[in-house]
Amino acid sequence: MTEVRLSIVPADRAGIAEIGGAAASGVRTRGAEETGAPSWKSLAVCANGDPDALFVTGAAQRDAARLCGGCPVKTECLAEALDNQVEYGVWGGMTERQRRALLKRCPDVTSWRDLLEEARLAGTEHLAG
User: Fold this and answer.
1) What is the pLDDT of residues 6-61, one digit of tens each?
2) What angle in degrees, to the nearest 10, is found between the helix axes of 96-105 and 74-83?
3) pLDDT surpassing 70 at residue 4
4) Where are the domains of the chain?
5) Which of 24, 83, 109, 128 has the CA that lies 20 to 30 A from 120?
6) How many C-alpha atoms does 91 have within 13 Å on its Cβ side?
7) 106 labelled binding-site residue
8) Is 71 one of the annotated binding-site residues?
9) Does the annotation place 46 within a ligand binding site?
């Protein structure tokens, strides 16, 4: 089965992802830009902020992760980092160390985007029922 990742690096956010993951190599796949839908990245709380604020070290990562608390695309952001094994920065409210630990605990996950979306839908169904 071929895995397709959506919207790796929109042109206006290329600087944020140049540090790690597939985005660093300039890989672009079919995504929101090609369908006319807004990219999830443009909806992020951090979209208009200083990208360097998310690429900090030590205890400052916890402060950076708080920015993600009310973000409407937190899940998409986290899935992006996990699927691309991004090593640096805070993504989806998780620090580098937290993401590494999660990837180590769950090495068989082939699509974090699918897994997190299923979990979100299951949680929504549970709340509605």
Assistant:
1) 333 333 333 333 323 333 333 333 344 455 667 899 999 999 889 899 999 888 99
2) 70
3) no
4) 11-128
5) 24
6) 27
7) no
8) yes
9) yes
CB 17 within 8 A of CB 81: no
With a pLDDT cut of 90, the percent of the chain lying above it is 51
How many CB atoms sit inside 10 A of residue 61's CB?
19
What 3 state SS string does the chain have? CCCCCCCCCCHHHHHHHCCCCHHHHCCCCCCHHHHCCCCHHHHCHHHHCCHHHHCCCCCHHHHHHHCCCCCCCHHHHHHHHHHCCCCCCCECCECHHHHHHHHHHCCCCCCHHHHHHHHHHHHHHHHHC
pTM strictly above 0.70: no
All residues at 6 or more sequence positions from 76 whose CB lies less than 8 Å from its CB, including other chains: 40, 92, 113
Question: 91 has which bridge partners?
Answer: 94
